[in-house]
Amino acid sequence: MHRARLAWSPELLEYDFGPGHPMAPVRLDLTMRLIRALRLPELPSLELVDAPPASDDVLLTVHDADYVAAVKRASTALEPDPARGLGTEDDPLFLGMHDAAARQVGGSVSLAEAVWQGRIDHGVNVAGGMHHAQRGAASGFCVYNDAAAAIRRLLDLGAERVAYVDLDAHHGDGVEAAFWDDPRVMTVSVHQDGRTLFPGTGYPGDVGTGRAEGTAVNVSLPPGTHGAAWLRAIDAVVPAVVREHRPDVVVSQHGCDAHGNDPLSHLEVDVDAQRTAQQWVHALAHESAGGRWLALGGGGYAVVDVVPLAWASLVAEAAHAPLASGMPLPADWREVALELSAIEPARTLGTTEPVRWRHWKDGWDPADPVDRAVQATRKAVFPLLGLDPFHD
User: Fold this and answer.
1) Residues 132, 191, 245, 259: which is the catalytic one?
2) Which of 4, 59, 109, 192 counts the highest number of beta carbons within 10 A?
C-alpha cells in the first residue's frame, strides 16, 4: 500500500510571473526531473497523483469572494488591482493565474483529505506552501494560500488540533493571520528577523489573541544565522510547543530560501541542515500526530543547486526512503539542469559530513544573537503553554 503521496501536474508550471521573476517555474521543473531521475516514483511506498484545481467553495474557506472574483478578472483581462496585491512587482499578472493558483490549493487540500481519511500517512506538494497570501490580497509571490486552505479542510473534516510548522526564511504571515484567534491551530514560524526581510512581521511577542494566545509561535533569527545555529533554534522551540499542542495532524512548509546561495534572504543554512530539519519534522509527526503529515514547498530561489535537492529529499523522506547524504546526483539530470538554467549544478547531495549542532539543554549564551532570539521566543510563549522557558 502506498503510504506517501506526491501531488503533481505539469500544469503547475503555468504558475509563471514572467521572465526575471524569482519564482521561476524552472525550479519546479528541475525538482520533478530530479525526483524522476532518482526513480522516487517507482518506490512502492510513494504514489504520484494529479493536483486538481480547487473549487471556488474551497477557495472561499480562506479567501473573500470579492478577492477570488478579482483574481479571475485579472487572470483574463490582465487589469491590475494593486489594492488586492494583483499586478504588483511581487505579483505580476499572467493569463490563467487563477487556474494555476487554484491547482496549487487543490493539490494541498486533496492531500490533506487523504491524510485525514487514513488513505495515506504523508502527503507532499512541492508546488504548495504559498504562505503569504492574505484573505483578501495576493502577497509575496502568493495568490492563494494553499496551506491555510489545507488546514481549514482538516478542521472541517473533524481535526481538533493542527500544528503548522514553517521553516521558510520568510515569516509565514498569511497562515498565521488566518488562524490568529483560533486555538485549534498552532502556527510555528522559524524565519529571518522581520526588521531585515519581507514581510516585516513575525516577532517573538506575536503570540495570538484571546483563547488562541500562545498558539502563534515566532522564532525571529538574525541575518547570517548558519545551519547549526538554525537547527539549534528549531530544536529549542518547535518540538516542545508542538508536543504541548497535541495535534491530530502536522502541516509543514519547507521553503528552502534560508540557504546561503538564495538571492532573497540573508541566512546561511545549507542543504544538509535543511534535510536534517525535514527528518525532525517527520519524526515529530509520528510522535505527536500518529504519523499524519502534510509537507509543502514554499520559497526557494536558488533554482539549481538548492531547490531540487531540498525538495527531492523531502519527497524521499516522506516515502521513508531517505536519500544518502553526499550521494552523487544523476549525470543526466545535471546535464538537463545546465541546459535549462545555464548554471553549473551541484555534483552531490550535500556532504558526507554529519551535521553538528548544540542542544539547548547544554546551556545558552546571552551574548549570542541567535540564542537571544530563541530565548525571546521561549519567554514570550512557553509560560502561556505551561512550559518553563529556562529549562527543557
Assistant:
1) 132
2) 109
